[in-house]
Fold:
Amino acid sequence: MHDTTHENVGHALKKLPVRDAVGTVLAHDITEIRPGEFKGRAFKKGHVISEEEVCHLQRLGKDHLFVLHIADDEMHEDDAARVLANALMGKGVKTVGEPREGKIKIIAEMDGLLKINKEALLAFNMLGDVMCATLHDSMIVRKGQTVAGTKAIPLLIKKTVVQAAVQIGEQAGSIVRVKEIRKPRAGVVITGNEVYYGKVKDAF
Structure:
């Protein structure tokens, strides 16, 4: 019989029976070896363990895991990255792919002019535990081009920090956006027929 007593091994770090680890955050990489087929990382540090993965972990010989407990006032880095990106984005940009290690990219949805609210971006980056890097304000960008990236720095981040970042984005309206460049229209007004008939040389 397995010992189901949770063993504390550090701040927020615990040793749990694998069947009790659903919903917790893996505190270490887990390697899998299938002779002649695969050798590498099966689960990465920071992965949130699901019910479906318990059997897989047991097949790898993992009866106990070291996990991080997510407190009520904390968020996992990948969940926080999604929230941060939404707080940053205005019109003309979108995220691409899933967050990885707390990082997510923001790309242009169209060709246009990148606009960065520099004051709001500075306030965002001064919060600590979150960051956003962007291309320079007023650059011409192309559809699909990466214009910014944001990251939740710690594996587990305080919700108060994320909420403060969201508030900065809301107050700014947007921090990162792309403005469509309108194509100008031009017209020609001919006031006489002398050019048409070749009596006068066109000087334009």
